[in-house]
Amino acid sequence: MKNGKVISVINQKGGVLKTTTVLHLGSALARMGKKVLLIDLDVSQANLTISTIGQLDEEGRGVLHAFFKDCTLNQVTYPTSQENLFIVPSEIKYKGRTIPLDVALASQPGSDQILKKLLKPMTSEYDFIIIDNGPTLGIATLNSLIASEYFLIPTLADYLSLVGVQKTMETIEQIRENLDHEIENLGLVLTMIDGRESIAKDSETILNNAFEGKVFNTCIQRNSKFKELAQNQTTIFDVTKNSDKGNKNYRELAEEVMNRLGMKSEIKNINKTNKMKNTEVSAGGMQ
What we know:
This protein is α/β, with parallel strands linked by helices. The protein has helices spanning 18-31, 47-52, 63-67, 101-106, 114-119, 139-147, 159-178, 198-210, 236-239, 245-260, and strands spanning 5-9, 36-40, 78-79, 85-88, 128-132, 150-155, 184-190. It has one domain (5-260): Rossmann fold. Helices cover 34% and strands 12% of the residues. The radius of gyration is 18 Å and the shape is globular.
């Protein structure tokens, strides 16, 4: 029986490659043979959903339907085009209305524990469950953190992003103290790094001093190819060779994650297209 590792990818600042990191970390792990579930909790943008299975139509069911107890998470789990990789998407509207997830949760009893309860029967089905969060701290993000064993923080190498990291850490510390929930810092990863920028090295030094042993050795380099992927629902692994910096960066990050969790890392030919045969993504999800 699997004992899925639940990881929140979080930073209280936008534009730090959270969604890109969720998708590519998940994709790399799936290509290692791990069964991976992605959850799109950034319902205001649904970028993870759009980047994997495309935007749901108004009849499509996603995470909002599960939070409103219309269905289980399993009933709104969709296969992606990649073998071993699945997603619980965000829908645009719930029953014809646009409803912010925080608003949807606010009126429910035990509103910060809902995702944890929804995930409980699913952790034995997956090796990894990786949650994409919006940049604002609200009930949805609290749900993600309380449901998770680990958190991972992508951050740019600039001052404002480092401030975002500090705010995120303060939030998590409050959760540990006030809600008596243990959640482990899996690590911080610097993203959109340009090797010519001396500030990147300075930021790495600052982070290493503040979070000793928690900064990933792997940095995600700046790569214009990431901007072109969402419209075709592809990943960097589908369109580049192993030698491409983005391809290499996320493979190495996945290996580091596996090592930090004490799991055996077996990189397969990550550039082989592992499309699921005769799989169609339907608006109803997997039943």
